[in-house]
Amino acid sequence: MTTDATRDAGAPPFVTEGYKPPKATHKARVLPGFRLSLGITITYLSLIVLIPLAALLARPWEHGLDGVWQAISDPRVVASLRLTFGTAFAAAVVNLFAGLVVAWVLTRYEFPGKSLLDALVDLPFALPTAVAGVSLCSMYAANGWIGSLFAPLGIKIAYTPLGIFVALIFVGLPFIVRSVQPVLAEFDAEVEEAAQTLGASPMQTAIRVILPSLLPALLTGFSLAFARAVGEYGSVIFIAGNMPFVSEITPLLIVIKLEEFDYAGAAAVAVAMLALSFLSLLVINGIQLLLSKRGRA
Amino acid sequence: MSLVVKNITKCFSDFAALNDVSFQAEPGEFLALLGPSGSGKTTLLRLLAGLDQPDTGSVEFDGADYLKLSARDRRIGMVFQSYALFRHMTVAQNIAFGLNVRPAKERPSKAEIAATVQRLLKLIQLEDLGKRYPSQLSGGQRQRVALARALAISPRMLLLDEPFGALDALVRKDLRRWLRKIHDETGVTTIFVTHDQEEALDLADRVVVLKDGQIEQIGKPLELYRHPQSAFVFEFLGTSNEVPATVSDGVASFDGFTAPAVSPKALSGAQTVRFRPFDAQLSPTGPGFEAKVLSLLPAGSSLRLELQTPDGKVFETQHAHESEASDLKLGDTVFVRPSKVYVF
Ligand SMILES: Nc1ncnc2c1ncn2[C@@H]1O[C@H](COP(=O)(O)OP(=O)(O)OP(=O)(O)O)[C@@H](O)[C@H]1O
Ligand SMILES: [Mg+2]
């Protein structure tokens, strides 16, 4: 009671100034058998991921460091890496916006045919990549449905980097949509209404209130779409034209090297890809960590 | 008259959540909207804020037709029960939001906004926590941030939906005193929703009692308590004991004794009458209703008794610590005699 007496009459009570939410020091174990499950996890990951990767890392060194460096710094390899990562990044960026719009429409509005549209989103996911590749190729070729629209403008899509870009957009879309959709669906309507009563326009509400809370999900979708696009093979090789230095993707180059029995060279290029992919994911995860530090949970 | 609500009806499919609701609020008045769960309190508040539209009726504020204005243009500060803070913004950014989204012409300068935020942080006693995120605050602190955010837009009216619903009893009591103080300082017309009758009576200038989407009674707390217009209001405002009696000319006759009867209507004949726990006298011999002491509990400055009659009915009565009740023990037989009853 003494504290009450010393407090200023209008002071809101029972709030210690230095209040910090308690931090869990011990995580409660929900699942029993921690040792067993950890053992299974490590064994499984080793067999499926770690050992094959280690084998890959061990492979390229038979011609020494020089041999590896020569294989990687080959201008044709460098051009293919630039093309692969460049188009994958560009396609993921495009999907970031397009996927957001699709997810928005699918969660926010009711219209006939919505569930059909919703199912359609998964198609690039479910379709065998070769099927997708062949159909994209015939659509975007100079005499195809879409390609013929662009041909008079002097724009060639199939058999150019542009074609690769289109194919990668196609395979990447579901990742963004499916990452964002559940977060958007669960967004608290009252938070949006609060923004309205405070005078925000619908646009301001979308940009200042809803979008920031979607950022983590967008980033997740982005990294998934990007990773998938970097490794994409089946749907790309048909539409790419595969011209060295112009439209030849790195996975194809690896296949070519393997067919020439240059196993060390193929492994060297694969390691370079691995390193770049790893680096990209590291950067994206870093951004995500920064975002979560800003008080989102 | 600042707020005039007339004949509001709101249906969800064919269920009437609000039915012909009319009331008014004076400028600067502090109004409580009291009613049990599902009585339409939130529905009414949302209509006033412009988040929903009524089926019929009108809402006027300072003579302007508010139904024609969007939520955005009404400039009504709303505090949601769930607080609805922006999680990715700091406390200070939350408070500044309403000013930052104004069109460039009306927007105060950065320095002015910062000053307003500081002033409000001081008002809610969170001066040092402006850089925290909502997830780093306690429930009571979040509640106050939500209030500051609503006050930042200099609202024409403030609406609070069960502002202290999620807080424990002690914090509630102090926060509501503090809310009253802030209201008196800012002078903004305030409507707050609660289903806690003590909170409503303690805090409001006037109380609007809602039941099943209809207004049961409007009045000052004391008026409501002294002259309830219906059995519902009487029972909602406190504990009530029911007994049958014969009523005529403002007197209720029981088996061998009588008591003055208060009624909003001139009722006579056989009626169910009600009395409050503190409108009861105990005696060892009667006259009165015979009953056994079921429990004996201290309730603050008084003693609360539960008494059971031979036919199983339970009365709750309240007495001073120093009274005929203080010597009773569990199982004792006493006679209860109401000293004042209400008839509806
Ligand atoms: N969107 C809606 N659709 C259908 N029925 C609704 C809707 N919103 C409210 N209702 C109904 O209207 C009635 C009043 O609801 P309201 O939320 O206004 O109650 P309340 O008085 O705020 O209750 P509480 O104290 O529990 O918050 C309830 O019976 C509820 O089921
Ligand atoms: Mg409610």
Compact overview of the structure:
Chain A is an all-alpha fold and 297 residues long. Chain A contains 14 helices and no strands.
Task: Produce the secondary structure layout.
The complex is a heterodimer of chains A (297) and B (344).
Chain A: H1 2-6, H2 34-58, H3 64-73, H4 75-108, H5 114-121, H6 123-126, H7 129-140, H8 147-150, H9 161-185, H10 189-197, H11 202-231, H12 234-240, H13 250-259, H14 263-293
Helix pairs in contact in A: 3-14, 4-9, 4-11, 7-9, 7-12, 9-11, 9-12, 10-11, 11-14, 13-14
Chain B: E1 3-12, E2 15-25, E3 30-34, H1 41-49, E4 56-61, E5 64-65, H2 71-74, E6 76-79, H3 91-100, H4 110-123, H5 139-151, E7 157-161, H6 169-186, E8 189-194, H7 197-203, E9 206-211, E10 214-219, H8 221-226, H9 231-236, E11 241-248, E12 251-253, E13 258-262, E14 269-275, E15 280-283, E16 289-299, E17 302-308, E18 314-320, E19 333-338, E20 341-343
Parallel strand pairs in B: 3-8, 3-9, 6-7, 7-8, 13-20
Antiparallel strand pairs in B: 1-2, 1-4, 4-5, 9-10, 11-12, 11-14, 12-13, 14-20, 15-19, 16-17, 16-19, 17-18
Helix pairs in contact in B: 3-4, 3-5, 4-5
The complex binds adenosine-5'-triphosphate and magnesium ion (MG).
Adenosine-5'-triphosphate is lined by residues 12, 17, 35, 37-43, 195 of chain B.
Describe the protein:
Chain A is mostly helical. Chain A has helices at 2-6, 34-58, 64-73, 75-108, 114-121, 123-126, 129-140, 147-150, 161-185, 189-197, 202-231, 234-240, 250-259, 263-293. In chain A, α4 (75-108) runs parallel beside α9 and α9 (161-185) crosses α11 (202-231). Chain B has two domains: 3-234, 3-Layer(aba) Sandwich (Rossmann fold), CATH 3.40.50.300; 239-343, Beta Barrel (OB fold (Dihydrolipoamide Acetyltransferase, E2P)). Chain B has nine helices and 20 strands. Chain B has helices spanning 41-49, 71-74, 91-100, 110-123, 139-151, 169-186, 197-203, 221-226, 231-236; strands at residues 3-12, 15-25, 30-34, 56-61, 64-65, 76-79, 157-161, 189-194, 206-211, 214-219, 241-248, 251-253, 258-262, 269-275, 280-283, 289-299, 302-308, 314-320, 333-338, 341-343. In chain B, the strands form four sheets. A six-stranded mixed sheet of chain B has the order 6-7-8-3-9-10, sandwiched between helices. Chain B has a five-stranded mixed beta barrel with strand order 11-12-13-20-14. In chain B, strands 15-19-16-17-18 form a five-stranded antiparallel sheet, with no helix packed on it. In chain B, α6 (169-186) links the parallel β7 (157-161) and β8 (189-194). Chain B is elongated. The A-B interface holds A 9-15, 17, 19-21, 188, 190-191, 193-201, 204, 208-209, 212-213, 215, 294-297 and B 49-51, 70-78, 80, 82, 84-90, 97-98, 101-102, 124-125, 128, 132-138, 140-141, 144, 149-150, 152-153, 170-171, 174-175, 178, 181-182. The complex binds adenosine-5'-triphosphate and magnesium ion. The site of adenosine-5'-triphosphate has 11 residues of chain B, from α1. Chain B: Residues 3-237 form the ABC transporter domain. Chain B: GO terms for molecular function: ATP binding.
